[in-house]
Design brief:
The protein is an alpha/beta fold. The chain contains 22 helices and 30 strands. The structure holds zinc ion (2 copies) and fe (iii) ion.
Length: 749
Amino acid sequence: MEKRFRLLIKGIVQGVGFRPFLYRSAKKYNLCGLVKNTSRGVILEVEGSEKSIKEFISYIINDPPPLSLIENYESREIKRQYSKEFEILSSEDDGEGGLLVSPDIAICANCKTELFHPEDRRYRYPFINCTDCGPRVSIIRDLPYDRPRTTMKDFPMCPDCEREYKDPYDRRYHAQPVSCYDCGPTLSFFESSSGKKLTGDPLDIAAQKLNEGFILAVKGLGGYHLACNAVLPEPVARMRELKGRETKPFAMMGTLEMIRRQATVSGEEKKWLSSPASPILLLKRKKNSTIAEPVAPGLKELGFMLPYTPIHLLLLQKIKEPLVMTSANISGEPIIYKDEMGAIRALCDYILSHDREIHIFADDSVARIFDGQLHLTRRSRGFVPFPLKIPVDRKKTVLALGPMLKTTFTFLFNGKAIMSQYIGDTDSPASIEAEKTAIRHFMKLFSLKPDLLVVDKHPGYPNREITADFKGVPVIEIQHHKAHVASLLAERGELGQVIGISMDGTGYGDDGAIWGGEFFVGDYRGINRFGHLKYLFLPSGDRAAKEPWRFALSVLYSLYGAEGKTTEFARRFGRKGELLIEVIRKEAGGIPTSSCGRVFDAAAALLGIGYFNNYEGEMPIKLQAAAEGSRKIEESYNFFIKKEGNFQVLNLLPTFQDLIDDARERADKARIFHNTLAQAFTKMARIIRNEYSINKVGLTGGVFQNVLLLRLTKDLLEKKGFLVLTHRQVPTNDGGVSLGQAFLASTLF
Ligand code: ZN
Ligand code: ZN
Ligand code: FE
């Protein structure tokens, strides 16, 4: 029996070779009909024998093209039309939204082969791409995804490209950025000081300048990078000066061979390095690594990515050493992605640029492998705007604006969450503007209008001002660490009750204190505080996070008062130290905190590892590095857990006392300190289990970026029979907070 069926397929189904796939499949199953892109998804009609139609549907749903993602589909029988052909119709804009957009994709194997094949017409063409790879979200201005709505609209296709573009059997069929030497964008090379364009092959000069030790800006997929030779200390040091970035590590780019000389690469790591998302991976540095010291001062991990665009590939072919490849920005501001040369010229000696406009910015993603799984610490290029499935759907469009550091925002709608790219620290007008721009872009791409806005409970976070752009839309506040827990629940699709352990830097608490070492019980319907780290006085407000010695002095004061070890330690800081003792004595200009980040700060300072954080968490990271260099020690220091008022309080002062009295070497003490926290968290989890009979523990918060602590805590909890949830796709740090804000708000309100 001949029949006709109509299907609506939703998900990532545009710009990923989906329509030519349907075309080829329909031919294979002897079906006629049509396919068209709409902003709701792909509409497909097939006509033929009922049996073939059934087999065809099962085939396309179960075996779609590699980059596509089918979220759901509907099918129903409609009237036969006696078609003789299978047609691909042009896109229509029905303004209903609900479509998904693909992230930018690293160059694929087929394009690489062509790129280096001397007979290919795109041999060494820096903008080669196909339906499986190339820029996507960064060049789309509007939907549906069609060339006139991308930044490729200024490059009319030549006859050869047009033929490929229109041929459903070609691997460039409807690849919007398709182009070649005859019709596409071109590279150019500028000198920063004069702004003058230099003649010659831009890639040749770029490679030469990099070898000579100059700093280049290189235009990539989601913005400009600053690049220099990573084995020469001088340019790296100079780049730090230009960027105003003292010690925060730089990421690098190299071929697999280059990376293997500097760091160990496991099978799993290799797989992710060369994945379509192509993130920066944090890899274990080799002892004989030749990377210049200022790239990642004092760290045992190096951040590497593979060349993920043809420009990067061609450039790396001409050089022998890996490159520092860091987002081009002025300290504290978002990545530079527009072609106005003013900002970029101040940061480099030369600029390797091109005329394909970047419509929206995206920094590189950062991840590491833990327990064989990818753990993202920054979810951006290659992953955004991939949706996350959310276990509860309340038919509301929620926009959560995120916290102040490592900000992302999240749109939650129709049972899915779309998290934004990494915006950065939203404490400057430029970064607030960047968040607004990205929000507007998302609203347009996904046809969204928020019904509810969510902000962090902290009354002073600057991105609250964004709510003013949405007059009449209700705004609600979600506590920071509850959002961390909810983010984990959302990511892992967890609907049951969990014990939520949120170890973090800073977050405004329900009681006005600075929270950051919290134990919760709850689920998506409500998360309640069960316990916390003992409140200690946090002097000097925000400065304390930048100057670990301040909280260390507060810890000493709690232990010994204003004498002995306290004054001895304060003396290192001269008059400032004396003054701070006075401040702590009077509890002036500060507030109580349960922050675990500060506990790590204090331990690092008391062990003499360092007294100042040049970047968030620097001393805690060095403390971890010290512990990783120690022998395997099982023992731990003392701590107490005691009920105070409504909460169980974990008191780590005895831990600090033991640490100070311990005469062993620093690395061992750092290790024992880590063991102690793992023990203490597990003890608290057992207390909660006894009371609530909950056996599932979620670990979240920025402190769990410390993989040694994560390892020790997870192992110990599992040994005690707990089921442990950790973040994977969504950062455990503040980059994940907006997801939790959105999830909790959508279910509570
Ligand atoms: Zn390709
Ligand atoms: Zn062409
Ligand atoms: Fe946080």
